[in-house]
Amino acid sequence: MMEEEELEFVEELEAVLQLTPEVQLAIEQVFPSQDPLDQADFNAVEYINTLFPTEQSLANIDDVVNKIRLKIRKLDDNIRTVVRGQTNVGQDGRQALEEAQKAIQQLFGKIKDIKDKAEKSEQMVKEITRDIKQLDHAKRHLTTSITTLNHLHMLAGGVDSLEAMTRRRQYGEVANLLQGVMNVLEHFHKYMGIPQIRQLSERVKAAQTELGQQILADFEEAFPSQGTKPKKPKALDNPFHGIVSKCFEPHLYVYIESQDKNLSELIDRFVTDFKAQGPPKPNTEEGGAVLPSCADLFVYYKKCMVQCSQLSTGEPMIALTTIFQKYLREYAWKILSGNLPKTSSSSGGLTISSLLKEKEGSEVAKFTLEELCLICSILSTAEYCLATTQQLEEKLKEKVDVSLTERINLTGEMDTFSTVISSSIQLLVQDLDAACDPALTAMSKMQWQNVEHVGDQSPYVTSVILHIKQNVPIIRDNLASTRKYFTQFCIKFANSFIPKFITHLFKCKPISMVGAEQLLLDTHSLKMVLLDLPSIGSQVVRKAPASYTKIVVKGMTRAEMILKVVMAPHEPLVVFVDNYIKLLTDCNTETFQKILDMKGLKRSEQSSMLELLRQRLPAPPSGAEGSSSLSLMAPTPEQESSRIRKLEKLIKKRL
């Protein structure tokens, strides 16, 4: 029972003596010890095994027990001494705390006394300095008042003097006085609410306005303006008219020669820059780009015109106009015409007919995309120059004397730019027209008498449509800003392509009935493409201009009527001849001869038919010598064969 009680006591003691790791660490730092009994992980069994490792060591057990008891007795004495010493600590602590509280109270009382004394001192200082601050404010206000009164006196006197000098036209004295009055008036901006100050400010503004009007009137009286036509006749009676400019006129030749040299260098720089930068980039959004050099040229012209007109409005302006004309022509020749795509030609003109020769079975040379864009850019630039030259002529006439306006004439230069525009359009037309030549040649080389059935459009039609779709959208997009010239391009192409198509149509001989039907289908396909040419490949469908539509309808209808005559049976002869006269408005023996050749008739058969045509053609009107054409409407003839009607139904069905 004793052993169990001891074990329970030991366990309770161990539970009480379990310290946290932080406390244990702090104890080890304060009281370092190597004694196993002081270790936190002390194990009694291990400690006993250390003391008595073997059975022989048990012989000294009494000595070991005595040592331990002695150590325990020492520890008890130390604990007792410490506990007894701590009994007086609480009393000493309370006494020290009371003493500290008393000291704090004494310190607080002293601080309060010091604060009260400081407040009394501050109040005393305020009372001492109050009078000094009042004196400082009074001094500052007095100084401001004196300064303001001085400024007011200066302003009032200056306004009176300004009005008096203005009436006496003492402009030299007024110039200095006005600046001084304005500087003084700036000090009174915050006093504008005072009626007297506001009145003085209004008098200054009125004096400024009156002075400006008076000076302008004096100048106009001495040097009348030439900007209007209400004053030029009266200016001749003014003794001051032209008195200054006449002094410069004998020497203005130096200025004119200088501008001649400068413009020559400017044109050379334009040529060099164009060669260095190359043609403008293709533009398909905002239309063909205008060359920037033309804007630079006309800006320089305007600068020269203004400078010269300020010195003289007489003969020097005429000389300057001559210089302008010279370099307008040089710009048109060197920058515009000189940079159009070069082509070899026997005549040396702006034509590509020699370059685009027909080669059966091969493609012809065509302008590249960059060359097409360059032509469109030059065309747009020429149009800009044409319009700006007309404006320049009007401005020059406004600047010179009335007696010299008739000598200002830039019509020749405007004609030069018009020529550049026409040449550019002609190049575009010839390029597309020549690209279609191989297809037309292929059409005339086909064996139309061997065609056995009517199918889709022939390959040569597809080739023509392909070239149109390649060129026309590029030209249209790059001429978007000059729509009227795109319309001219379309009209000129139609006037060139349709007669050429009819010429090649006459070369298609002999033609069988089925071959004529195929050709009629091809002609109708080309007619539809040409009618749609202005908006082909465009997302925005626009109605073609009426003038263009009229040309296409007239030309391609004639081609269709020729084929219909070819398809009609030639017997009986009278019906065939009457059918020819009704279908073709420009009927004549030459066209009739070609149609007979297309039908493959022999010469013996043709002679009787030609004689019958001559008999049935009405007599030409008086004054039309040698004319064998007849202007008649072309209704559908009643004698048209069932085969022709069947062909028309076939065309409508396919379209």
From TrEMBL:
Compositional bias of kind Low complexity: 622-632
A biological process term (GO) from this entry: lysosomal transport
GO cellular component: cytosol; endosome membrane; GARP complex; recycling endosome
TM ranges: none
Domain Vps53 C-terminal: 517-601
Superkingdom of origin organism: Eukaryota
Coiled-coil positions: 97-138
Region (Disordered): 618-645
Membrane topology reported for the UniProt record: Peripheral membrane protein
Vps53 N-terminal domain sequence ranges: 41-228, 233-274
Key words, A-Z: Coiled coil, Endosome, Golgi apparatus, Membrane, Protein transport, Transport
Pfam families xref list: VPS53_C, Vps53_N
Compartment list: Endosome membrane; Golgi apparatus, trans-Golgi network membrane; Recycling endosome
Function text: Acts as a component of the GARP complex that is involved in retrograde transport from early and late endosomes to the trans-Golgi network (TGN). The GARP complex is required for the maintenance of the cycling of mannose 6-phosphate receptors between the TGN and endosomes, this cycling is necessary for proper lysosomal sorting of acid hydrolases such as CTSD. Acts as a component of the EARP complex that is involved in endocytic recycling. The EARP complex associates with Rab4-positive endosomes and promotes recycling of internalized transferrin receptor (TFRC) to the plasma membrane.
Subunit structure, interactors included: Component of the Golgi-associated retrograde protein (GARP) complex, also called VFT (VPS fifty-three) complex, composed of VPS51, VPS52, VPS53 and VPS54. Component of the endosome-associated retrograde protein (EARP) complex, composed of VPS51, VPS52, VPS53 and VPS50/Syndetin. EIPR1 interacts with both EARP and GARP complexes and mediates the recruitment of the GARP complex to the trans-Golgi network. Interacts with VPS50 in an EIPR1-independent manner.
Family named by the database record: Belongs to the VPS53 family.
Protein name: Vacuolar protein sorting-associated protein 53 homolog
Native organism: Nannospalax galili (Northern Israeli blind subterranean mole rat)
Gene: Vps53
